[in-house]
């Protein structure tokens, strides 16, 4: 991210915190002590966000990391409630006059603060739950036999996603007895040397016909080649613009490097290349494309793709961030059909088995996706 973009981002975050203070704190009480306390809370949350974003890629104490990262979720929830309060207050003032607004303002703010506390607590509770097993049957043309695929995405191995949490994910996945396991990016969100014990747990994944991994955007922020080598040592097949042809099942599994590789890296090997990824596929076998970001489908040309498996979106993670995700990505989660160059295909998007940053989710769930591919 360029310096100018960072400065602009910082200015926006500051302005939004000022908006939160004037909407939720300034009129909550006439007592100057309460007002100063409100200023302190807003400034403290802003500083926590700055600290978290500055040291996100380092190794931070888990307790400090939780406190710092949670400030992002608290800010987002508070801002949306503040926006609702602002619009509601403005509407009451225009419709019934300022005196009526004065009479209702205390009740509105009380309801707003109750909503903020409830939503924050709920978001921590939802994220703390064990990931759900989400099953989906998908019909595939020219498929020889049914195939069960365990789809894991966005584990984000790092400070909070430690070896114990990864071991639980591995255990739940193995209990499904999948034919194939796919890891569709953002599996590692740390330097490999700092999280090697958690990464090692992935080596305990078990499937009949292999485990296949593609890079997500977060692996590019660290020692990408070391991460790839470490995962390969665990017996997991890494697909960087490559394919694996499973003749016994009659399918091609192709994996493309993440789109962020076009922007932040000079190494051509780590840049996405769809034509290279599918170059040696057997034409009459169905092709499953592993791509971290769903919007990869916008770049399909003549490649024959029957199913795309993606992650990245986290289902929005904290509502209503869903709508911002949909500005950048074509779909949010689940199974969808799409067309490209007169071809029809399908894409399945996981909401992720982990989380980014703050250990909070609101109206989205951590999930392990179990896909039942059947002949159409």
UniProtKB/TrEMBL annotation:
<keyword id="KW-0378">Hydrolase</keyword>
<feature type="domain" description="Calcineurin-like phosphoesterase">
    <location>
        <begin position="148"/>
        <end position="315"/>
    </location>
</feature>
<dbReference type="InterPro" id="IPR004843">
    <property type="entry name" value="Calcineurin-like_PHP"/>
</dbReference>
<keyword id="KW-1133">Transmembrane helix</keyword>
<keyword id="KW-0472">Membrane</keyword>
<feature type="transmembrane region" description="Helical">
    <location>
        <begin position="76"/>
        <end position="101"/>
    </location>
</feature>
<feature type="transmembrane region" description="Helical">
    <location>
        <begin position="6"/>
        <end position="25"/>
    </location>
</feature>
<dbReference type="InterPro" id="IPR029052">
    <property type="entry name" value="Metallo-depent_PP-like"/>
</dbReference>
<feature type="transmembrane region" description="Helical">
    <location>
        <begin position="108"/>
        <end position="126"/>
    </location>
</feature>
<keyword id="KW-0812">Transmembrane</keyword>
<dbReference type="GO" id="GO:0016787">
    <property type="term" value="F:hydrolase activity"/>
</dbReference>
<feature type="transmembrane region" description="Helical">
    <location>
        <begin position="37"/>
        <end position="56"/>
    </location>
</feature>
<dbReference type="InterPro" id="IPR051158">
    <property type="entry name" value="Metallophosphoesterase_sf"/>
</dbReference>
<protein>
    <submittedName>
        <fullName>Metallophosphoesterase</fullName>
        <ecNumber>3.1.-.-</ecNumber>
    </submittedName>
</protein>
<dbReference type="Pfam" id="PF00149">
    <property type="entry name" value="Metallophos"/>
</dbReference>
């Amino acid at each position: 991210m360029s310096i100018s973009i960072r400065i602009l981002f910082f200015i926006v975050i500051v302005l939004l915190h000022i908006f939160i203070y004037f909407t939720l704190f300034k009129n909550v009480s006439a007592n100057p002590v309460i007002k100063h306390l409100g200023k302190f809370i807003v400034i403290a949350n802003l500083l926590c966000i700055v600290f978290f974003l500055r040291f996100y890629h380092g190794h931070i104490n888990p307790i400090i990391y939780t406190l710092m990262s949670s400030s992002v979720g608290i800010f987002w929830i508070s801002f949306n409630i503040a926006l609702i309060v602002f619009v509601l207050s403005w509407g009451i003032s225009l419709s019934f006059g300022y005196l009526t607004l004065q009479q209702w303002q205390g009740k509105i703010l009380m309801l707003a603060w109750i909503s903020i506390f409830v939503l924050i607590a709920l978001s921590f509770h939802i994220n703390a739950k064990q990931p759900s097993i989400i099953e989906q049957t998908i019909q595939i043309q020219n498929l020889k036999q049914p195939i069960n695929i365990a789809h894991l995405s966005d584990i984000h191995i790092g400070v909070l996603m430690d070896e114990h949490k990864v071991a639980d994910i591995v255990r739940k996945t193995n209990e499904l007895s999948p034919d194939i396991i796919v890891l569709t990016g953002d599996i590692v969100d740390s330097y490999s040397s700092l999280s090697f014990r958690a990464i090692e747990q992935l080596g305990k994944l078990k499937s009949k016909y292999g485990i296949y991994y593609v890079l997500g955007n977060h692996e590019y922020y660290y020692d990408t080649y070391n991460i790839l080598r470490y995962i390969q040592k665990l017996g997991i097949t890494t697909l960087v613009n490559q394919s694996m042809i499973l003749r016994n099942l009659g399918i091609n599994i192709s994996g493309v490097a993440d789109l962020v590789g076009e922007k932040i890296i000079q190494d051509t090997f780590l840049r996405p290349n769809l034509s290279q990824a599918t170059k040696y596929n057997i034409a009459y076998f169905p092709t499953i494309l592993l791509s971290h970001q769903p919007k990869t489908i916008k770049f399909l040309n003549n490649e024959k793709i029957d199913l795309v498996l993606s992650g990245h979106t986290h289902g929005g993670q904290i509502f209503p961030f869903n709508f911002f995700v949909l500005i950048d990505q074509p779909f949010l989660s689940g199974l969808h059909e799409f067309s490209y160059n007169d071809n029809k295909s399908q894409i399945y998007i996981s909401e992720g088995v982990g989380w980014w940053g703050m250990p909070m989710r609101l109206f989205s769930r951590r999930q392990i996706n179990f896909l039942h591919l059947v002949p159409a």
